[in-house]
Amino acid sequence: MIPKPDRANPAAWARFRFSVVGSLLSSPPARGDLKTTLQILANKTWTHPSTGREVRFAVGTIERWYYTARGARNDPVRAHAQLSVGRIRAG
User: Fold this and answer.
1) N or C: fewer beta carbons within 10 Å in the chain?
2) Does the residue 14 lie in any domain?
3) How confident is the model at residue 8 (pLDDT cuts 50, 70, 90)?
């Protein structure tokens, strides 16, 4: 039996999202290189935080995660947890 995804764990999703975009925050791409860097991340295969399966994410998704983290000056992981809660409630 395949385990159901744990959509109710915003902390796990927040850590995962931050792990995807964290390098962009600690070492920002040169001016004009963000789209290329986002495309590189979108071409990678990631391990889904709930199912453990291999997944890929669109450039726009990763870009949204990046701007969410960048906009949260004090705690970018917490900002992603709040993003998760909003999506769970909406979905």
Assistant:
1) N
2) no
3) low
Q: Are 49 and 25 in contact (CB under 8 A)?
A: no
Backbone dihedral angles phi then psi of residue 55, each to the nearest 5 degrees: -140, 160
CA distance 84 to 17: 10
How much of the chain is helix, strand and coil, in % rounded to 5? 60, 5, 35
Confidence band of 12 (pLDDT split at 50, 70, 90): confident
pLDDT computed for residue 14 by the predictor: 87
- Residue 22 maps to a domain: no
Confirm whether 16 is domain-assigned.
no
Q: What's the rounded Cα separation, in Å, for the pair 46 and 40?
A: 12
